[in-house]
């Protein structure tokens, strides 16, 4: 109990720092990949602190409220995850958060952000099956949805779930809104329709959105780590290494691929989920029988 | 440490330019000049922008657009006119539809001359704009004290002009494009008088 309180507190306090640093590393590495010097490592923090100092403009007050709800649900997801509760519940709360983002974008009435919002829904549909498959996979391997039990299993879950892990890493690109799947909004310097859900956010709301994304990324990286950790403490170090490797892979994909059409993304992600995760789980079920 | 000047986001608006200056503005953001190392990001949303880069002159159709973009930007904000067209009307000055440079509708702080303005000059102009941006934070705090944090109504136009014209004294000349030198030098001085002096020319 005490451990879980500590880890929740650590998540709530440290996730923005880690998330921001990851974002900074991302921008720096991306710049180097494009043979540029790139912004300083702490640039994401400079950006957010500036956004918070600017005049507050919001298209409607409802947008601020909905974005705050989005943030709170993401925080709740992460807190539940690091408290070691039910992983299925975590994922449902995560989907709820995505709904709030959808509403926050549509409530402005701007065509750009409305289109972005509908694309966000398509993205949700694209990654949801793989997320649920991961939960099912964890249950089959460890006999429980409890994260604390999964994390303290005898053997790392990835040993039984390589296909599910691959599918999860694939949809991570969609979830983190990285190219080729930065369809609902892009992190690069773009405008209007490509900026999608963030296109009508005033300075402060954009700061809320950015910080929420950091929390979300840390949570997602936590799920990646969950595939690796077992009851051996050394596995935590391995998990961190795998997280960095996966993160680097995301940056590489981001910088080497062009944006896809939304329905092609949907087809591709479902196919990959079905083939990799589906077959993996099928084999697992045969083995258990 | 977290100074706002480390993260200037620019909004680029193309008035009635020949497109030459726009290409140069975009060139600044390419890996060759890499404006992002100063934290500069090209945003498409006035509500997230700090520095407005205007290229090209103002004509009767885009005047309200420019004004609206300016009004939608949250304080503190800085306006930077890129190229002679945006400074004075430039080569299009005598066209029937051209009202003049960007400062015919909004207060301009930094003038970057050149036809087309070179990327180095543009980055130099932005860097100067960034210093001004930092200074304006104090003004903004004062403004928040009077108007409150949330201020949804469009800002009173006269008030905007007042703030702008007062500060336009800091106008900077960034490049010695010889042909435009004379113009850009007279510019800051004539700025207070506004339109009148321009019409005389
Ligand atoms: S200053 Fe020259 S290059 Fe720039 S928009 Fe005007 S005519 Fe074109």
State the helicity of chain B in percent bands.
40-55%
Q: What hetero molecules are bound to the protein chains?
A: iron/sulfur cluster
Shape of chain A: globular
- CATH architecture classification of chain B: 3-Layer(aba) Sandwich
In percent, how much strand structure appears in the residues of chain A?
A: under 5%
Oligomeric category? heterodimer
Distance between the termini of chain B: 46 Å
Spatial sequence of strands, sheet with the most strands of chain B: 2-1-3-5-7
Let me know the largest β-sheet of chain A.
Answer: none
Structure description:
- Chain A has 289 residues and is mainly α.
- Chain A is built from 11 helices and no strands.
- Chain B is an alpha/beta fold.
- Chain B has a single domain (4-200), classed as 3-Layer(aba) Sandwich (Rossmann fold).
- Chain B is built from 7 helices and 7 strands.
- In chain B, the strands form 2 sheets. Chain B has a 5-stranded parallel sheet. In chain B, strands 4-6 form a two-stranded antiparallel sheet.
- In chain B, helix 1 packs across helix 4.
- The interface between A and B is medium-sized, with 35 and 33 residues.
- The complex binds iron/sulfur cluster.
What's the short version?
Chain A has eleven helices and no strands. Chain A has 289 residues and is mainly alpha-helical.
Characteristics of this structure?
heterodimer; A: mainly alpha; 74% helix; globular; B: 201 residues; alpha/beta; Rossmann fold; five-stranded parallel beta sheet; two-stranded antiparallel sheet; 7 helices; 7 strands; binds iron/sulfur cluster
Give the SSE layout.
The complex is a heterodimer of chains A (289) and B (201).
Chain A lengths: L1 H32 L9 H11 L7 H23 L3 H20 L4 H32 L4 H5 L10 H14 L16 H4 L7 H24 L7 H23 L5 H27 L1
Helix pairs in contact in A: 1-3, 1-9, 1-10, 2-9, 3-4, 3-9, 4-5, 5-7, 5-11, 7-11, 9-10
Chain B lengths: L8 E6 L5 H9 L12 E3 L7 E5 L2 E2 L3 H10 L5 E5 H6 L9 E3 L9 E3 L6 H29 L9 H11 L10 H13 L4 H6 L1
Parallel strand pairs in B: 1-2, 1-3, 3-5, 5-7
Antiparallel strand pairs in B: 4-6
Helix pairs in contact in B: 1-4
The complex binds iron/sulfur cluster.
Iron/sulfur cluster binds next to helix 1 and helix 3 of chain B.
